[in-house]
## 1
Amino acid sequence: MKKTTIITFAVISALFLVSWIAKGMFTEGSSPFLDGFLVTLAAFLTLAIMSFLYKDNPYYKFAEHLFVGVSAAYAMCLGFWSTIVGNLIPRLSSGISEFFKVSYIEGDYNFIYFIPIIFGILLLMRLSPRGGWLSRWPLAFIVGTTAGLNFVRYLRSDFINQVSSTIVPLMIDWQGFGHFFSNLNFSATGQLVMMFSNLVIFIGVTCGIIYFYFSKEHTGWFGRASKIGIWILMITFGASFGYTVMGRISLLVGRITFLFRDWLEIIS
């Protein structure tokens, strides 16, 4: 091990102990040193993740592996107690249900629940060198069922709703030019703004579809509409990316607030 690595580890360990003792001495509660340890650990793990901005290092890898391991263990425990204990065992045996202290649910078709048990055992055969082929059957069932259910869900939520949201009237509550100019306003629910919004949706969808139509050469008015479609797509992708970045920025602000408020107590 390099001398620099040893010195860095010693300095970080010393800072951790100093922070732990300081937080334990000035933290109020029934268990101040435990609360101080948890706050210090959370702060150092946050800084370990942020250290990747400098370069890849063992502290970042430790925090990353710890996060992935804890998340996987939490998901496994949650699935066991909510799915197996909460949904499967109450329908299989009254004795096992009594052991786990859950109410037994009687039913005429409880034997069906032995099918997922068999599939689960076959899925674990993936760990066996010789019986790995048996895991393909439950895996194919899971993939096929998930794909079928998600296809119907996405067809309803994305495709059909997208098409229905595109079919909008260009002339909203049209009662003539006199009525239009006498009630002219720039509010979000006003007739002018609503008509302009629907016109933008109509032109944007039409030009976006034209851009993906490759059976005709993009020249003339067709090419100009295709270029408008490119602008519409770029604006859409940019807005989506900006929304994603703002979500990540809010997470960063939350962690920085935690460091300066809960750990260092510089801000209130």
## 2
Amino acid sequence: MEKKQNIILSFDLDNTLIDNREGIVNSFNYALKKYNLPVLERNKIEKMIGTPLDEMFKKVVNVNPKKLSSAFREYYREKGIYQGSLLPGVREKLEEFKQHFFTLGVITSKRQDLAIQITKILDIFTYFEYIIGESDNVKSKLDPNLKKHLQNNYSEYSIVIIGDHPKDLALAENIGAPFIGVLTGNHSAEELRRGNAPKILIMKSVKELFPNLIYSLF
């Protein structure tokens, strides 16, 4: 198939491409236990997935979130990172998109080094042109440095943001990109439509995405 135009499909990671709930829940409660704080029920932690780690801790305890985030990563690096798996059909879809000449990327709230490591563990790292996560340079999905980086490096591309979280929709709005919301996370179709991205599509999962649907956004 001939390449029609330069399109980047930019995916969120947790609950969009991977199911890492177990690793995140275990790491979160490990951090709370380390500082003798009450652990949280699994569903309460899962509802916060996709939010930057410091913000997650700020929502539930009045303790320095940096300390808790550091403890979270301590467990996550050793064990939690291995407790994830690809969501059904993801590898096949990434392969299909590459065959249709789409460029693929990842923008996540995870620490960038951990995001790179987990994509290598799950053997999908080589599909991506870029993996952007929290770093010294980019603090969140709405960081001006992220927008600048995309503008400077991918100005010849049309970008589509794909994710399960309202923060992914906010990212799409911020860079003026179409948004595809997937319902494999903890947010409803209604929540993922509450925004002003140029175009919004809601799908059950990445598995339901097809090239013609993506071309229809432009």
